[in-house]
């Protein structure tokens, strides 16, 4: 194991309180293998990934433990030596490619700087040759014209592959990849995953892949380590973990993961993991575990061997799987009513350049229509035109038979309140200086409701999204990502809309939070008869939430129909290619 990555008994604390963020983390990755580190948001995955580079976030300190990259122990190095090994011995690929690339520098210069910083190649000619080799490795052009481009002139997938080229530039022994495909469409994701798989195997790199997408793990990783509340609760080979999960938390993760096969319903999990300083004595998962008993609350369970190369920290790990099962997907009993939104021959563009061509859609009362396709296909432009947030479109959009004006501010207040938009990023859609109550109540004040009635409506809508009334006084930074998204949904629902436009609302959420949001949206459609437009590139999720699917490519709808037939039996070659590019747990296990 000396050639790969070895983490031994790692613990990191909050400096101000001494409370552990992660504790007793021990992981080994052989060279040429990929280990996926999974768990809910806040479980400590990124904290462990940064510690591999000897780095911590502000206010966090490494209490104890060792990190070996090959023969080098990282944590004992001084700051100067740590900087020397970062990039040369161990590299990092962040979630957002734009954060790893300097927007003011051409990509060729940035690639050359990485080589020069570590004196890799020894001469300008050798470095030029290495840059061409790097670009070929990530399947990008290596001509001078392309290398002269700035990051903003590349697509998200191209930016991520440039980030991968930088990370692999100096032939490191270890690479940490922190959710590098989150937010990418399935085709781009497939290219990036193929690149990661090829480079790690060809060059014998030990890869730590941090993610919450279980389908990606099934397709890419060799091994899995599952984290909960700062500790590793299960680890083993991918096939073994998916086929025979031993820890109750892992079983819940697998049950919550949507699959493109669409044969099972996704199952959420109530509650949330406690934050550092509030974690219970014993097993941190006990408060949410249906199998917990008194012994679980006394001390944290030791790792036990379930089988060869499969361990779990649970006193019931060797018992047969019970408590959580993959339930069969039930047929929808929702009543679909009259058309609410009718989009006819809509074309839209930016500064005169058309990106959407002659799109027609109908969404009925109680129906969910999923709009899917690659990045840049025009999905969000169509949804923003429906919401009155895009000014440059022609054609017709009708609400209950009434023609809609182009922009929201031109529309009647009642029509604006009837169509509500939930944005992709819950962090950016809520004002950090306003309390949750203030954010939710604003649409009602615009409508002229009294403060007393408005407050009662706020409490009612919080109950609808399964949040307590005490949350009205909280600020967005005090909430988890899933809770923020629930608040964004509550703000959209408080005006009792007829149409809900959801733009990639689950793309940044882990599978358990995603399952809870999907359950919530399904319940709301059943209770309120909402018509819903669900914009996404997550095809497995489509089968769990949508009645109808419209597939967009290059600004045009190429296939539309019931979700079961479009996803289960696609007729268009483009739809078929999207489905083949989508990672599938079931397909990978076969």
Structural class: alpha/beta
Gross geometry: globular
Overall pLDDT level: 89
The number of distinct helices, counting runs of at least 4 residues, comes to 21
Q: Return residue spans where pLDDT drops below 50 for at least 5 consecutive residues.
A: none
- Largest beta-sheet characterization: 8 strands, mixed
* Strand count: 22
Structure description:
There is one protein chain. The chain is an alpha/beta fold. It has an eight-stranded mixed β-sheet with strand order 6-7-8-3-9-10-12-11, with helices on both faces. The protein is globular, with a radius of gyration of 25 Å. It starts with a strand and ends with a helix. The mean pLDDT is 89.
Topology summary:
Elements: E1 5-14, E2 20-29, E3 34-38, H1 45-51, E4 60-69, E5 72-73, H2 79-85, E6 90-93, H3 107-117, H4 124-137, H5 144-147, H6 156-168, E7 174-178, H7 186-202, E8 206-210, H8 214-220, E9 223-228, E10 231-237, H9 238-243, H10 248-256, E11 304-307, E12 310-312, E13 339-350, E14 353-364, E15 368-372, H11 379-387, E16 393-399, E17 402-403, H12 413-418, E18 419-422, H13 426-429, H14 436-446, H15 451-464, H16 481-493, E19 499-503, H17 511-528, E20 531-536, H18 539-545, E21 548-553, E22 556-562, H19 563-568, H20 573-581, H21 585-589
Parallel strand pairs: 3-8, 3-9, 6-7, 7-8, 15-20, 15-21, 18-19, 19-20
Antiparallel strand pairs: 1-2, 1-4, 4-5, 9-10, 10-12, 11-12, 13-14, 13-16, 16-17, 21-22
Helix pairs in contact: 6-7, 7-20, 14-15, 14-16, 15-16
């Amino acid at each position: 194991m000396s050639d790969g990555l070895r983490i031994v008994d790692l613990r990191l604390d909050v400096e101000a309180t001494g409370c552990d963020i992660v504790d007793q983390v021990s992981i080994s990755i052989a060279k040429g293998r990929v280990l996926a580190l999974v768990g809910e948001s806040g479980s400590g995955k990124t904290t462990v990934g940064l510690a591999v580079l000897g780095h911590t976030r502000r206010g966090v300190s490494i209490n104890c433990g060792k990190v070996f990259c090959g023969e080098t122990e990282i944590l004992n190095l001084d700051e100067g030596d740590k900087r020397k090994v970062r990039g040369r011995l161990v590299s990092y690929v962040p979630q957002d490619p734009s954060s790893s690339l300097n927007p003011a520098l051409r990509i060729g210069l940035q690639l050359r700087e990485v080589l020069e910083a570590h004196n890799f190649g020894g001469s300008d000619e050798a470095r030029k040759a290495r840059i061409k080799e790097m670009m070929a490795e990530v399947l990008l052009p290596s001509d001078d014209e392309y290398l002269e481009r700035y990051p903003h002139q590349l697509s998200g997938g191209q930016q991520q592959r440039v980030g991968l080229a930088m990370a692999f530039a100096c032939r490191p022994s270890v690479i940490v990849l922190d959710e590098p495909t989150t937010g990418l469409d399935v085709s781009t994701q497939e290219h990036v995953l193929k690149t990661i798989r090829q480079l790690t195997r060809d060059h014998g790199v030990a890869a730590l892949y941090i993610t919450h997408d279980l389908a990606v793990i099934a397709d890419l990783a060799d091994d899995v380590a599952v984290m909960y509340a700062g500790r590793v609760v299960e680890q083993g080979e991918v096939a073994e973990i998916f086929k025979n999960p031993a820890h109750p938390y892992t079983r819940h993760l697998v049950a919550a993961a949507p699959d493109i096969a669409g044969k099972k319903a996704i199952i959420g999990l109530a509650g949330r993991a406690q934050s550092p300083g509030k974690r219970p004595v014993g097993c941190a998962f006990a408060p949410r575990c249906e199998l917990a008993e008194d012994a679980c609350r006394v001390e944290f369970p030791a790792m036990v061997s379930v089988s060869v190369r499969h361990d779990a920290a649970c006193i019931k790990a060797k018992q047969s799987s019970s408590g959580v099962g993959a339930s069969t997907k039930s047929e929808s009993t929702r009543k679909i009513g009259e058309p609410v939104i009718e989009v006819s021959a809509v074309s839209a563009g930016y500064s005169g350049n058309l990106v959407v061509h002659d799109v027609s859609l109908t969404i009925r009362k109680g129906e969910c229509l999923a709009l899917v396709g690659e990045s840049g296909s025009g999905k969000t432009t169509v949804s923003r035109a429906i919401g009155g947030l895009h000014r440059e479109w022609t054609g017709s959009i009708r609400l209950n038979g009434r023609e809609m004006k182009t922009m929201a501010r031109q529309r009647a207040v009642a029509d604006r309140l009837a169509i509500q938009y939930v944005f992709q990023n819950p962090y950016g859609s809520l004002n950090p200086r306003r309390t949750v109550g203030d954010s939710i109540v604003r649409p009602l004040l615009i409508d002229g409701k009294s403060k007393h009635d408005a407050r009662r409506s706020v409490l009612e809508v919080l109950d609808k999204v399964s949040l307590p009334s005490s949350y009205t006084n909280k600020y967005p930074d005090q909430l988890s990502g899933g809770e923020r998204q629930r608040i964004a949904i509550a703000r959209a629902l408080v005006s009792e809309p007829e149409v809900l436009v959801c733009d990639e609302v689950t793309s940044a959420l882990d599978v358990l939070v995603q399952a809870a949001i999907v359950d919530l949206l399904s319940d709301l459609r059943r209770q309120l008869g909402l018509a819903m437009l669900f914009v996404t590139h997550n095809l497995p999720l489509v089968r769990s939430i949508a009645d109808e699917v419209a597939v967009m490519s290059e600004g045009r709808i190429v296939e539309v129909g019931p979700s079961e037939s479009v996803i289960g039996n696609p007729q268009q070659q483009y739809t078929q290619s999207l489905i083949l590019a989508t990672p599938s747990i079931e397909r990978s296990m076969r």
